[in-house]
Specification:
The complex is a heterodimer of chains A (307) and B (275). By secondary structure, chain A is of the alpha/beta class. Chain A has helices at 40-47, 71-74, 90-99, 105-114, 130-142, 160-175, 187-193, 211-218, 230-239, 259-269, 283-291; strands spanning 2-11, 14-24, 29-33, 55-60, 75-78, 148-152, 179-184, 196-201, 204-210, 222-227, 243-246, 251-255, 273-279. In chain A, strands 5-6-7-3-8-9 form a six-stranded mixed β-sheet, sandwiched between helices. In chain A, strands 11-12-10-13 form a four-stranded antiparallel β-sheet, covered by helices on one side. In chain A, α3 packs across α4 (105-114) and α4 crosses α5 (130-142). The radius of gyration of chain A is 24 Å and the shape is elongated. With 275 residues, chain B is mainly α. Chain B has one domain (22-272). Chain B has twelve helices and no strands. The longest helix of chain B has 34 residues, at 120-153. Chain B is globular and about 65 Å long. Classes of the chains: A alpha/beta (307), B mainly alpha (275). Chains A and B meet through α2, α3, α4 and α6 of A and α1, α5 and α6 of B.
Chain lengths: 307, 275
């Protein structure tokens, strides 16, 4: 459980994180979404006590991270895959980390195995690809068998197989009852992985909501309809509070009405339909819509709907 | 690359046993030190300079031995054989800088401080490991430089015995001075966070004050000189009484005080600043 209360970080006159309040709950994957530069990494560094908040506070399982006696047991984090000394082997990087809190050596081998790095664990990490670096960072995050896992953009640089691996890994960790907090700037990736979303833009909270609600709220469905008489159909739909736009080659894009309603109205009016489809806006579009103007969309309205 | 999704858990070691302690952080820092190639090369350079340069300088002095009773009386065979220490201090000081500034350069510092969120154990751990590693490696090297140097100087009967008053202190003291310079570099690295900045700062502190003192009126600079970092620290290696220098351990103590101030500032900044 991660709880941020009024979390604020100011660098000079730039407000990187602006009064963020959110809770990340155990047992599910929570996506932390926002365009580049929205303040995701800064927020994660504040959770880990690396950066001190200008105002507000953040706790992990009820305590500021710094006050945990066994920090690696509480939180495992991947902040930057390149945060490895290039001259040191992956094995020694993990061993040094394990030794700070007395984690046994065999555990290092276990996590190396688990992320699939056994073949290269003794090689200098400087020669690793970004994807291998991500795997090493994830191994480090899992070292202490933590109750909370925080990963900053973990799929960066991974191939398709690696992305699929991360996805099932995260879902597995959440299913074991752990708190999993994963940032990304890619909505589509989050859609496959996360059950809950925290969206920020320009340091501010835009949405804190379940994945499905987010999509439904951000982009209501659009109905595409093509008929033999577009003008008559458009007039009819407008009279029933539908918003109608020309969609080219005689098609109309209708919002505010469902496919059922459009079909019945057209049937009753004797207009022949050639095509009738519901177009769910893609998640990526929903995300772009929401974050296009972070200030305008500053509407944490669904927070009250949380369990 | 084969991957498994099943991550084995580490339950046998319970939450309470995974506490961060200073002793554990020292072990961790030891692993970091020995697994970093730059450490190896810095220490190797230091050892080679101590023995190699000392021997070379002894050979030079033997080929041009001091002439006349005054020159012979002023000849300090211990200092001549330990000349290499003055160069080795640069290698050891740079090693100290690299231990911390290198972590800032690579971003590893965030991993280190996230694992040890109270932070100070990381600095103390590095200091303990660096001090012990330089002592254990440099003491034999300094002793070897002394013995090799004396055997070279004996050709002209210029050598001195380790049992001669002050000689053993000079040999051990030179090694302690090297460790202290390493800690000074460590403190500067932690304070300035950049390798280039900290190396410049280190060289500035080691050599700058003497240069600046030279610009002062002679009576001022003579009074000030013994209290400058390197002249103070080097006093520990004086075998012949030197009225212009501090007493050996007083001088070394003063150098340790300077180093302590830098380390204290570094500790204060480490606690305070964002990583």
């Amino acid at each position: 459980m991660i709880e941020a209360r009024g979390l604020t970080k100011r660098y000079g006159d730039k407000l990187a994180v602006d009064d963020l309040t959110f809770t990340v709950r155990p047992g599910m994957v929570t996506g932390f979404l926002g365009p580049n530069g929205a303040g995701k990494s800064t927020t994660m560094r504040m959770i880990l006590g690396l950066d001190a908040p200008t105002q507000g506070s953040v706790t992990v399982n009820g305590l500021p991270y710094r006050d945990h006696a066994a920090p690696l047991r509480e939180v495992g984090a991947l902040l930057d895959a390149r945060s490895v000394h290039p001259g040191r082997s992956a094995y020694h990087h993990l061993l040094a980390l394990a030794q700070t809190c007395g984690i046994r050596r065999s555990r290092v081998d276990e996590v190396v195995d688990a992320v699939g790095l056994n073949a290269v664990a003794r090689r200098r990490a400087g020669g690793f690809s970004l994807g291998m670096g991500q795997r090493l960072g994830i191994a480090a995050a899992l070292l202490g068998d933590p109750g909370t896992v925080i990963l900053d953009e973990p799929v960066n640089g991974l191939d398709t197989e690696g992305i699929r691996w991360i996805r099932s890994l995260l879902q597995g960790l959440a299913a074991e009852g752990r708190t999993v907090f994963v940032s990304s700037h890619l909505m589509s990736e989050m859609a496959m992985t996360a059950q809950h979303l925290i969206v920020i833009g320009r340091g501010r909270l835009i949405a804190d909501t379940g994945m499905e609600e987010f999509v439904a709220r951000a982009a209501p469905g659009v109905v595409r309809v093509r008929s033999t008489d577009p003008a008559a159909l458009a007039a009819l739909l407008r009279s029933r509070d539908g918003a109608v736009a020309e969609a080219g080659d005689g098609g109309l894009a209708v919002s505010g009405l469902t496919t059922d309603e459009v079909g019945r109205l057209a049937g009753a009016a004797g207009i022949t339909l050639l095509e009738l489809t519901a177009q769910q806006a893609s998640l990526e579009e929903a995300f772009v819509d929401l974050t296009r103007d972070a200030v305008e969309f500053r509407a944490p309205t669904t927070r009250g709907a949380q369990p | 690359m084969t991957t498994t999704n099943r991550i084995p858990t580490a339950r046998p070691a319970g939450a309470t046993s995974q506490r961060v302690t200073q002793a554990r952080v020292v072990r961790s820092e030891w692993t970091k030190l020995r697994s970093q190639p730059s450490t190896f090369w810095s220490l190797l350079a230091a050892l080679a300079l101590i023995v190699g340069f000392g021997a070379l300088y002894c050979v030079l002095r033997v080929t041009r031995p001091p002439t006349g009773p005054e020159a012979v009386a002023a000849f300090d065979p211990t200092a001549v054989s330990l000349t290499g220490v003055q160069l080795a201090q640069l290698a050891v000081g740079v090693l100290g800088v690299l231990l911390v500034a290198g972590e800032y350069a690579t971003g590893t510092i965030r991993v280190s401080l996230a694992a040890v969120p109270r932070r100070l154990p990381v600095l103390w751990g590095k200091a303990i490991v660096l001090a012990l590693a330089t002592l254990v490696l440099c003491l034999p090297a300094t002793l070897a430089a002394f013995l090799v140097g004396q055997s070279i100087l004996s050709a002209e009967r210029l050598d001195i015995s380790l049992r001669h008053p002050g000689v053993a202190r000079a040999v051990v003291g030179s090694t302690l001075f090297l460790s202290a310079v390493g800690l000074l570099g460590l403190g500067l690295g932690a304070l300035l966070r950049s390798t280039a900045g900290a190396v410049a700062g280190l060289f500035g502190l080691l050599f700058g004050p003497q240069l600046l003192a030279g610009l002062l009126p002679a009576d001022w600079s003579d009074k000030l000189y013994p209290y400058l970092p390197v002249p103070a620290g080097a006093a520990v290696a004086n075998v012949q009484p030197d009225s212009a220098a501090l007493a050996p351990w007083t001088g070394f103590g003063l150098f340790c005080l300077y180093t302590g101030v830098v380390l204290a500032l570094a500790a204060w900044q480490l606690r305070r600043r964002d990583a």
